[in-house]
Amino acid sequence: MNGRVIADRYELSTVIGQGGMGQVWTAYDRRLDRRVAVKLLRPDRMAGTEGADEMRRRFVRECRVTAQVDHRGLVTVHDAGSDGEELYLVMQYVEGADLADHLAEHDPYPWQWAVSVAAQLCSVLSAVHAVPIVHRDLKPRNVMVRPDGSVLVLDLGVAAVLDADTTRLTRTGSPIGSPAYMAPEQAMGGAVGPYTDLYALGVLLHELLSGEVPFAGSTALGVLHRHLYEPPIPVRRLRPEVPQALEELVLRLLAKDPLHRLADAQEAYRALAPLLPVPGQAGGAPLGPMNPTRPFLLPHAPWPERAATASGPVPPAATALVGPPPPAPSGPDVAEAVEEVKRLLDQGGITQAVDLLGSILPAAAAEHGERSTVVRTLRKQYAATLMDDGQYRRALPELRLLAEEYAAESGPHAARQVLRFQYDAAQCLEQLGEAVAALTEYRALLPLFERHPDDPATPLEIRRRVGHLLLSLGDRQAAHDTLAALLHDAERLHGPHHPLPAEIRHTLRWLGQVRA
């Protein structure tokens, strides 16, 4: 981990991207305890070069214009400023996989997916062009597919305001953009506009449908020459199942002359709309993660879907992240990592502690064995920290594994540990909204806890949770009977003025009013 802190707030962790403008890091916002992405302008690109002032101006403008666009398909800008000689931009930390990797994993790419991706990009481009901004570097590496199938454009870092100095800025430096996705007018250093991004959209759509960009070559100059002078191969020659209307759209987007392309991103969306999946077409079948058709088939549906049950595995909250998770300490020195986790927790850095524990568990298992005391201790801390961080879906399988390990042992200590982890697992189910599964587990655990007279409070808490779960399931009579019996025992244990009896009386009064 880097350990450097930007602006006394953002602790850098891992480099996840580099480019002409600088580096992008995963980082932690100490004030709000959350992951963020921080983009830095490198000092060696700011000092000692002829265009340093111009690069600084471009970066400052990037911060300003990016923050002007409010769209669900763009990364949110949290903060911007300077730290010493460097400029920084703090952005949303994104879960998902970039479109280039997504395409590689799903080759051939279903044409319905390509349409769904392109339609979402049209929505983003329409908002960007309205500012007005031209992205200039739209390509699969700058597009993310999130776990719910929605598409997000990562980088407006090379965007420029459409004002009088835009052309001067690009002409004084090297062309902005990637050769494979560069429009002819951009390659020639001419004026750019929304039509330039539409050309890049055409290249991207051609690539999704055919698996290859329309113009490739061994050198950047050769690629640019093909953009300028060669016609693209119609995608239906490569994929006959692609609808003719979609092929025609791609060819219009790839027109050499900007005047022969579509008028704007809205017109491109209207051309795609008849090809988009219609809500309900999925027929109730579950859609896997990162399916770009999902926002159209199941608009506004919650994600992740409840595919897990009380007895089944629970998937992690996210399938992938932008860049790797924070690495385990080199070595790996597990003891040093544990001390770092303690320090983070003392300082309220729960999110960082979760990432660090998750990264050192595999290393510790490889070094000490999956069933070792070291790994078990780490897993206990990991599960507890996940629960503290509200990540119940990720905590649940860890708790199940711990309960299973202790159940294989004998003795009263092991039995108590099994009960404790099963109780925590039931709480996770309750927090995840799995009311029936949680109720089943609480009822199974209650008699086991009642056999331990040294812990009279936990059975009362379980009974309270059972009463509230019954209420959430609509069984008011059973909830009333459960809580009424609990009130007597709670007053006897804690006294009538304790918060628990007071809460129960309040709920019973409300239940009485509802029933009346």
Q: Can you describe what's shown?
A:
The protein has 516 residues and is α+β, with helices and mostly antiparallel strands. It has 4 domains: 5-92, Phosphorylase Kinase, domain 1, CATH 3.30.200.20; 97-280 and 288-297, Transferase(Phosphotransferase) domain 1 (Transferase(Phosphotransferase), domain 1, Orthogonal Bundle), CATH 1.10.510; 307-434, Alpha Horseshoe (Serine Threonine Protein Phosphatase 5, Tetratricopeptide repeat), CATH 1.25.40.10; 456-516, Serine Threonine Protein Phosphatase 5, Tetratricopeptide repeat, CATH 1.25.40. It has helices at 43-46, 52-68, 99-105, 111-129, 166-172, 184-187, 194-210, 220-229, 244-253, 265-272, 294-297, 334-346, 350-368, 373-388, 392-407, 412-431, 435-450, 457-472, 476-494, 499-515; strands at residues 5-6, 10-19, 22-29, 34-40, 77-83, 86-92, 97-98, 133-134, 143-145, 151-153, 160-161. A 6-stranded antiparallel beta sheet has the order 1-2-3-4-6-5. Strands 7-9-10 form a 3-stranded antiparallel beta sheet. Strand 3 (22-29) and strand 4 (34-40) form a beta hairpin. Helix 12 (334-346) packs antiparallel against helix 13. The longest helix has 20 residues, at 412-431. The N and C termini lie far apart (61 Å). Mean pLDDT is 82; it is low at 46-50, 158-174 and 306-332.
Q: Keywords for this structure?
A:
516 residues, alpha+beta, Transferase(Phosphotransferase), domain 1, Serine Threonine Protein Phosphatase 5, Tetratricopeptide repeat, 6-stranded antiparallel beta sheet, 3-stranded antiparallel beta sheet, 20 helices
